[in-house]
Here is the input.
Amino acid sequence: MTGAHGNAYVARLIEIVQTTPWLLELLDSVHHAGPPGAYVAAGSIRDTVWNALTGRSSPQPSSDVDVVYHSEGELPEVTAAHAKRLQAQQPHVDWEVTNQATIHLWHRRDQGLEVPPHRSVSEGLATWPETATAVAVRLNAAGSLEVLAPFGLADLFELLLRHNPTLVPVDVFWRRVRERRWRERWPELRVVTPEA
Here is the structure.
């Protein structure tokens, strides 16, 4: 994310996060009890930004809270232990903890797809179904907010719902749009993806 727009979007995202108490609490929990270097990503970030941009409130997470990180060679029980610690910290939250270094195994087992292992969290985010969803935030060791967005933040902040064809077919994208009722919840969204 470079240029004036990119910097402005990062600053605005950080401002939105800093004025959303439950999201700050999630980030603090992930920083202290979650996997090292983990981010909060997807709907918790996307929906909060869309609500802020359209004058809607965000009193709580609208769905599960995606926590993403990258740890090569980590056993599944370690990933489960991260989730258990987070659940103990905030039992009311539906935590979804995913190691991006092993997500290719899920793709093979559950989706029947052969995907090379991701080498970083950013590489994992770059395969997510929508560009506006591929945004993650974390608290770093210095206590500052860090933003990770492989596609930048323009689509998120310009309320553009764009299909990312890297891994997910367009019909799956449209199914997600329907099932999650994004256009009903945020009529301001513009879909910039070809029809299925």
Notes: The chain has nine helices and seven strands. The two ends are 30 Å apart (CA to CA).
